[in-house]
Specification:
The chain is mainly β. The chain is 8% helix and 41% strand. The protein has 4 domains: 22-92, no CATH class; 96-177, no CATH class; 178-241, Antifreeze-like/N-acetylneuraminic acid synthase C-terminal domain (Type Iii Antifreeze Protein Isoform Hplc 12, Alpha-Beta Complex), CATH 3.90.1210.10; 244-302, SH3 type barrels. It has helices at 36-39, 65-74, 99-109; strands at 22-23, 26-29, 33-35, 40-41, 50-53, 60-63, 88-92, 94-96, 119-123, 130-132, 138-147, 152-161, 164-184, 199-205, 224-225, 240-241, 244-246, 251-258, 261-269, 273-274, 278-282, 289-296, 299-302. Strands 9, 11, 12, 13 and 14 form a 5-stranded antiparallel sheet that branches. The protein has a 5-stranded mixed barrel with strand order 18-19-21-22-23.
């Protein structure tokens, strides 16, 4: 239990001897001081006085019989200890500072360092910040330190009430640069030709980017998945392949080009191929094998005869 330092100024005053005063079962206070009326029932407003400092917000202290007896005697209250076990628990009411408020303050304080809405900030080992319930707080940071290379931030959060500092809290955080990249909207099975509706953009931290990740939809659409891509997963270039336009063993239309002359024939593909890929094609009549470039569905171009 928090040790209370009492600063009692016992002002002996005359209470109405007939006034009924009794100890409350418990007390909840908002102010920074515990008052007589918080502890005892029957205290008139002009007879009220500070008797102790309140605990921190959301914390509870216990006032024991010895302390209560001193207070009653000091202020001439018609109340006395009967069993020696009389106590009262006093709880300080409070509220929490919203995490978003703290993050916005950090971002504002680092604006001149290039930190903007495109960055994300995470608090490091931070417990909820409790403040008294009866204040309208204002906030500012002091003693700010920021290392741009690592994104590490530290500073002291000052919580004020009418220019009075009511709390000083050390804050540590990390700033992350963010980027939007396409990810799988739902699971994309092996072999599926990926369409734009299969993808959606998602903000991620740049330090979470994997090697060879596709950064825009144009790098993905029209290609097929070489493996299953799970929902929400970033798409790697190595996971993609252009769709096969020519399949091994199938008949293909061969276009022969030389200078101003163009001839066509039918051949047999000896390799599978994607667009612009070089494959081997055999002329079924002459059995001659040539290299050709895949230009379309079951179509290849031979540049030299």
């Amino acid at each position: 239990m928090k040790k209370i330092l009492l600063a009692l100024s016992f002002i002996f005053m005359t209470f109405n001897a007939n006034a009924l005063v009794y100890l409350k079962n418990e007390a909840r206070v908002a102010d920074k001081h515990i008052m007589l009326s918080d502890v005892f029932e029957g205290i008139k407003s002009d007879e009220d006085h500070k008797i102790a400092s309140s605990p921190n917000p959301f914390e509870t202290i216990t006032l024991d019989a010895s302390f209560l007896s001193q207070v009653a005697k000091g202020y001439g209250i018609d109340w006395a200890v009967k069993t020696g076990y009389e106590t009262i628990k006093v709880t300080r009411e409070g509220k929490f500072v919203a995490t978003d408020t703290v993050l916005s303050l950090i971002k504002e304080s680092l604006f001149d360092k290039g930190v903007s809405e495109e960055h994300e900030i995470s608090l490091i080992n931070s417990d909820p910040i409790a403040i008294p319930s009866n204040i309208e707080p204002s906030f500012e940071f002091s003693d700010i330190a920021y290392i741009e290379k690592t994104g590490l931030f530290s500073g002291t959060l000052l919580v004020k009430n009418k220019q009075e500092i009511v709390l000083m809290e050390k804050i540590n955080a990390k700033v992350f640069e963010m980027i939007e990249i396409p990810v799988a909207k739902s699971s994309i099975p092996l072999g599926k030709v990926i369409e734009e509706e299969d993808l959606e953009y998602q903000r991620i931290k740049t330090n979470a980017l994997r090697t060879n990740v596709a950064l825009n939809i144009d790098e993905i659409v029209g290609k097929y998945a070489r493996r299953t891509i799970k929902q929400g997963q970033m798409v790697l270039i190595n996971d993609l392949r252009m769709p096969l336009l020519v399949s091994k063993g199938k008949a293909v239309r061969m276009i022969f080009k030389k200078r101003n002359m163009t001839l066509t024939s039918v051949g047999k593909a000896l390799d599978s191929g994607t667009k612009n890929e070089l494959i081997r094609v055999m002329n079924p009549n002459s059995k001659m094998v040539v290299q050709a470039v895949v230009t379309g569905n079951n179509t290849v171009v031979v540049n030299e005869i």
